[in-house]
Amino acid sequence: MSDAVGIENDRSSALADARDRPKSRFIHRHLSELGGPADALSGLICGIITVLYGISYAALIFSGPLAPGLSFGLAATFLTTAVAALIVSLRSSIPFMISGPDSSTSAVTAALSGALAHHMIADGGAALVGPAVLIIAMGSLLSGLFLFGLGRARAGRAIRFVPYPVIGGFLGATGLLLVEGSVQVMTGHKLTLTNIGELTTQQNPFMILAGLVIAASLFWARSRFKGALTIPAVLAGAVILFYAVLALGSVPISDAQQAGWTFASQTSVGINIPWTAQALTNFPWASMPSLLGNMLAVVFVTTISTLLNTAGIELTAEREADLDQELKALGVANLVSGALGGYVSCMSLSRTTLAYSAGARGRLAGMSVAVIAALMLIVDPAFLSFIPKSVLGGLLLFMGLDLLYKWLVQSSRRLMLVDYLSLLAIVAVIFFWGFVYGVLFGIVTGCATFAFSASRVNAIKFSFDGGSYRSLLDRSKRDLVVLNDNGSNIQGMALQSYLYFGSANSLYQHIKQLIAKKTGCRFLVFDFRLVTGIDSSAIHSFNQIKLLAGKNNASLVLVNMSSDVRKAFKVGGLLGDDVILSNDLHHALESCENVIIEDKIENAHQRETFIEWLEMALQNREYAETLAEHCKKIDVAEGALIARQGAPSDSMHFIMEGRIGVVVSVGPHSQIRVRSLGQHTTIGEMGLLTQQPRSANIVAEANSLLYELSAESYDRITSEHPALTQALLTYVMTVMSERLRFANQTIGILQN
């Protein structure tokens, strides 16, 4: 009994160890990737820059009518940064990844909160800050759900299918929004034509000019100095210069604050959870339908920014990221941030690259940024009353112009004219009419651009006629003459790609011209082996082709159709008795060739004697009779092995009746049919002449009648009948030259 209890205890311990093993591996891996002093230092540097960026993002989102809620914006910004930096640093596949609010995502978040404020003001609403905090938290939750769902479904790579002009249009528009927002941060007025009067009065022109100077200084400093603290140094210098000018002009700080050069004094609010019953009750839910486009824009820009920034980090660090893992980590971060009242964040290319350049290789870099952001939550926001608006406005202007240069100027060198014009149009639509129309226009433009580009891809991989491209069946000289003279009766096309209204209509126009030119066409052969799919519009085009072929006494031959394509043709009513279906191109061509030969040759099935065939081949009755005497008649049943691959070439065969296949073994259980030979053809002649081993198996594909010329018989003919030998060699050379000519024609067709 005690032994049984001991065994049970051991089993329980083993199960517990198995359950704890993944946890221990997780902890051990993260401890080994934590990093050291270099990671902490790089995190400190990135934390300082993140704080500066975060203050500017808060000022952007809570500007204009939302300016009284700037303290809520600061709290939401530092909360978002702390949550995102911590979760992503722990879960990212790249240990030194740094995440937080970004310029593009903050721009669309500002557009979302601004749109809500506009609707509420229009409806007479007064309390704007609470609903604004709630709407940006909703955007974070929606983005988090979408990102986590993408990563969970391992569909991260699907983002790469978004057309580049649509991506560039959205991110270029965020650059414009940042420029517009920078003016609003500095002056309190939006950059619109109706506000020109306000923007050109009082101190506003000087504030904008100061912001332009700071933005220009940032561009200049970035191009000249590559240090990690270049941007903080320029901003600190701008603040010092501002107060130096005030001192030189004997202007009290209180007067500058009253004139609007600095932000209003803010009170500390701490972490504010927006999901209260009162907040949800007071929220203007009636405005949600009009905000749907802005919400989708937040999700889209966050997703695209994550993709692009992660790709840039991969290039910098020369290591591949697990995109699905990144999406799940960022999705969780945005869900937590939204639940706590923060807004969206994404992977930061600039700060992660900076951390890597400063020596960061571990997770401590991102964790340090999280700690610094968390510490900022307890700092009194009254310090904002001493920060000049032009400094933060200049920083936003710098980021906006940087995005505009990247997506509107540099893209012009990488995109074709049509794509670039689409990008510019999407930017214009978003800027003047909002993200709702931008989303719709982007979808329409993306589809139209794709359709236009795809229509330029020829649906025909290669085309041929029966005289230049034939089946794999070797035929007699008489049959070849008929096929060469009547090759235009068979017109074939190997189709490719996805067939839709654009490419299929071009195919129909091609067929119209072809039938008008080739009036004797009997068969239109379409090979669907390379076709990936077909739409209903393309089915309509094939209906037109079928009607056109019927009027001109031509039959459709459809080859290598997948089950989906065949189903589409069946639904479209195209598969009838007048349409020939085949699973193999060469068998389809062989059937068409047989029809043409039977129609063109009288008594095509009349049998010749072996001697009569040899007389035609050797051009001499006596030679034919002598050669026939040296040959042995053989009857072989279907499926019989006549010669084995690798065996000595000790004979050649004259095929009098039936059909012989040439099959190459490519493995122990795999064979490929190279070609077939019909009546009045020969096989094995080159092996007999060169004495090289058989290069393929020779198999009877039907009951056949052969005449075998052995190596011994051929040697006797060579010594006793030199003239016959010469005639036989001439015949063999004629056969080989015809095969070589056909092979060259086939290669030429495939190359073109």
Secondary structure elements and pairings:
Elements: H1 2-32, H2 37-61, H3 70-91, E1 99-100, H4 103-122, H5 129-152, H6 164-187, H7 196-199, H8 204-224, H9 230-248, H10 253-258, H11 277-282, H12 288-317, H13 323-340, E2 346-347, H14 349-357, H15 364-376, H16 389-409, H17 417-433, H18 435-455, E3 460-465, E4 473-474, H19 477-485, E5 490-499, H20 501-517, E6 523-534, H21 536-551, E7 555-559, H22 563-571, E8 579-582, H23 585-600, H24 610-618, H25 621-629, E9 632-636, E10 641-643, E11 651-657, E12 660-667, E13 670-677, E14 681-683, H26 685-690, E15 697-700, E16 704-710, H27 711-720, H28 722-751
Parallel strand pairs: 4-13, 5-6, 6-7, 7-8
Antiparallel strand pairs: 1-2, 3-5, 9-16, 10-15, 11-14, 11-16, 12-13, 12-15
The gist of it:
The chain has 752 residues and is an alpha/beta fold. The chain has a five-stranded mixed β-sheet with strand order 3-5-6-7-8, with helices on both faces.
- What is the strand content? 5-15%
- Which structural class fits the helix and strand makeup? alpha/beta
Strand count: 16
Average pLDDT number: 85
Number of alpha- plus pi-helical segments:
28
The biggest sheet amounts to: 5 strands, mixed
Distance between the termini: 84 Å
Radius of gyration from the alpha-carbon trace, in angstroms: 39 Å
- Can you list the strand order of the major beta sheet? 3-5-6-7-8
- Give start-end ranges of low-pLDDT stretches: none
Query: What is the percent of helical residues?
Result: 55-70%
Silhouette: elongated
